[in-house]
User: Fold Acetylpolyamine aminohydrolase from Martelella mediterranea DSM 17316.
Amino acid sequence: MRIIYSEDHKFRDAKTELHGGELVKPFEGPFRAEWILAALQENGFSDIVAPEAHGLSVAGKLHDAGYLEFLETIWERWTAAGFTSEAIPISLPVRRSYHARPPKNIDGLLGYYANSVETSITDGTYRAAVAANDCAISAADHITAGNRHVFALCRPPGHHAGIDLFGGYCFLNNAAIAAQRLIDHGAAKVAILDVDFHHGNGTQDITYERDDIFFASLHGDPDDAFPYFWGHAEETGKGRGEGFNANFPLPRNTPWNAYRAALESAMKRIADFGAEALVVSLGVDTFEKDPISFFRLTTPDFQRMGAVLAASDLPIVTVMEGGYGVTEIGHNVANVLLGMEDG
Ligand code: OKP
Ligand code: ZN
Assistant:
């Protein structure tokens, strides 16, 4: 299986994350990609290539133009405003912000484009996010060229990035970008399956009114898990997208057997949809030892997961999302890919 990886992920290296009322070292850092890359190499994956530079022409079809300009210019404008530490939003439009619009003040703009406030923006964040976008596009192109499976080792992750929203460690929605690229190159119907522990609220936002992208997500019940305000089973799509969104909220301590049942249901929905290709938003934060999540998958379970995905017989672009804290994240990712190759 080919792996698309850019060293430029290293430019996303925030010093702070707001967690439990404190600014802590972020759970999402460069070490994650290093651990994953090392485990892939240990497991014999040697076809590892850098992406082409694609720019934001695909992202521009999914994200708001003002939002993309904000991402590109925030750091310069933040420091020009006299701030010396990392950019953290303060005031967000919420219920009854009836006339919310992008303010001219950079501090206000930061809140306008945020869906959560743990994710500090730093010098280099934009450069790394664009490189992750490049990985997703190059991976999609590898599928269009006729290959069956490809893995985009994206960092920073993307599935919480909405049309005009960043947060949850995400800035550009790499999975949606991969799906759009497949469509731009001839696919009529693409499914995105999100197996990260957290609901893919950004991907749902981007695809909610579309009938050419089916979105399914398995995640911690929003009553009990970040991002809290999306991911309910009642969210089924809107307008022509009605019926093309499927959420599978799952309870604390969900083990593989219960997870697999939900996964099979999601795969059945994707087959019924008639997907021509599958984009998998792969988070391995469903692991039993993940520091910020609460499912109970084991390292061997990830290989079983890969086999279930490959049983669809669809071409698969796997895009890296979350998975934190422990070096096992690398082996868990490798196991998903090994399960796909065997399956
Ligand atoms: C990103 B991805 C722990 C609470 C959760 C944000 C989690 C973002 C997860 N500080 N905070 O979906 O893995
Ligand atoms: Zn996650």
The pocket of zinc ion (ligand 2) is lined by residues 196-198, 283, 285, 321-322 (CB under 6 Å). Residues 54 and 134 are 6 Å apart (CA to CA). The longest strand covers residues 213-220.
